[in-house]
Amino acid sequence: MRTLLTFFVFLPFLAFAQVGVNTTTPNAALDIQSTNNGVLIPRVQLTDALDIATVVNPAGGALATATLIYNIAGAGVLPNNVVAGFYYWNGAKWIPIAGNATGDDDWYENGTTTAPNAISDNMHHLGKVAIGTATPSTNAAFQVELGTSNTDGVLYSGTFNAAATVPNFGAGTRMMFFPGKNAFRASTVTGTEWDNANVGINSVAMGRNTIASGDNATAFGRSYSTGINSTSLGLSTATGTNSTAMGTASANGNGSTATGFSTANGENSISGGTLSIAAGDNSFAIGTGSQAIGANAVAMGNNATATADHSVAGKFHFNWSEFYSYKCFNCRWRIINFYGNCHSKWIW
């Protein structure tokens, strides 16, 4: 009892010296030593990181900067929420000591408000991100500034695997590249056009509701390329292998080419113009309503039809006087269904 009274009598004087607990040679203003005990910091329940009412200065006035407490449990809402852990007062708000996860973190693990703590964590950030600049465009959600470098760039890399599966994101406006299939997509779809079943290996599709499901296929505008090595532009469809369609055309035969508002169904066939059809293999149809039905057939002009294999049909409509000036009466080949503006008759 006498020892205790002596301690309290000399406590005011000891306060101006170093204090040691379990040591006679303190190395700081307060030196506590123990091999099996700890120190309990005041435990409180903050309402949020801006709470100035729960913890007070016993001497009155503002809470002293560097005041340390242990918060018992989480409270508050983002971005000023607090969780269980140690906090110190910085003069304006409670700051978590490293290791605490709070709303002040710049990044969270995906689907949580927990700060990432591993190099492999998947994480998200709700604000805009800029690399290489402190003054990014206000309209850029993500900006990379390369400055004057002639060697730096933006690199996206991965591993190709023919069996790779593209996630089925469904409808939406987006730009995406999947190294597994070497596939690139950009613009808008309203359905499943860019889901895995419609993404060919080494394919590219840009535009609204474009489909490039064939391997090595490309589709632009609002077109479909379902054939291997096929290309489509505009509102066209290329279903044949090595086919090309442009405009509002359909290239269905292997190796076929269709332009305008025409259809090329035969292998290696070519069609162009309006409503012309190249149905035979190696056939050619061009004009308005012309049809090349036979193999190796050619149909040109207005509503000309070449039905037999190796046949040629042409139906033209032009000014008679112009025809005369070309002096074509001596032509040795026959023109089928030829007529002029002024004269409606057969010319042989």
Please report the distance between the alpha carbons of the first and last residues.
140 Å
Largest sheet: 18 strands, mixed
Show unreliable segments. 1-14, 319-348
Give the strand tally: 30
Q: What attributes characterize this protein structure?
A:
348 residues; mainly beta; 18-stranded mixed β-sheet; 30% strand; disordered N terminus; disordered C terminus
Care to describe what's here?
By secondary structure, this protein is mainly beta. Helix content is 5%, strand content 30%. It has two helices and 30 strands. The chain has helices at residues 2-14, 320-325, and strands spanning 19-21, 30-32, 43-44, 68-71, 85-89, 94-96, 108-109, 123-124, 129-131, 142-144, 172-178, 183-189, 204-208, 211-212, 218-221, 224-225, 231-234, 237-238, 244-247, 250-251, 257-258, 261-264, 270-278, 284-288, 291-292, 298-302, 305-306, 312-315, 317-318, 339-340. The strands form six sheets. It has an 18-stranded mixed sheet that branches. The protein has a four-stranded mixed sheet with strand order 3-4-5-6, with no helix packed on it. Strands 1-2 form a two-stranded parallel ribbon. A hairpin with a 4-residue loop joins β11 and β12. The longest helix has 13 residues, at 2-14. Residues 1-14 and 319-348 have low confidence and may be disordered.
What's the structural blueprint in terms of helices and strands?
Layout: H1 2-14, E1 19-21, E2 30-32, E3 43-44, E4 68-71, E5 85-89, E6 94-96, E7 108-109, E8 123-124, E9 129-131, E10 142-144, E11 172-178, E12 183-189, E13 204-208, E14 211-212, E15 218-221, E16 224-225, E17 231-234, E18 237-238, E19 244-247, E20 250-251, E21 257-258, E22 261-264, E23 270-278, E24 284-288, E25 291-292, E26 298-302, E27 305-306, E28 312-315, E29 317-318, H2 320-325, E30 339-340
Parallel strand pairs: 1-2, 3-4, 9-10, 12-13, 13-15, 14-16, 15-17, 16-18, 17-19, 18-20, 19-21, 20-22, 21-23, 22-23, 23-24, 23-25, 24-26, 25-27, 26-28, 29-30
Antiparallel strand pairs: 4-5, 5-6, 7-8, 11-12
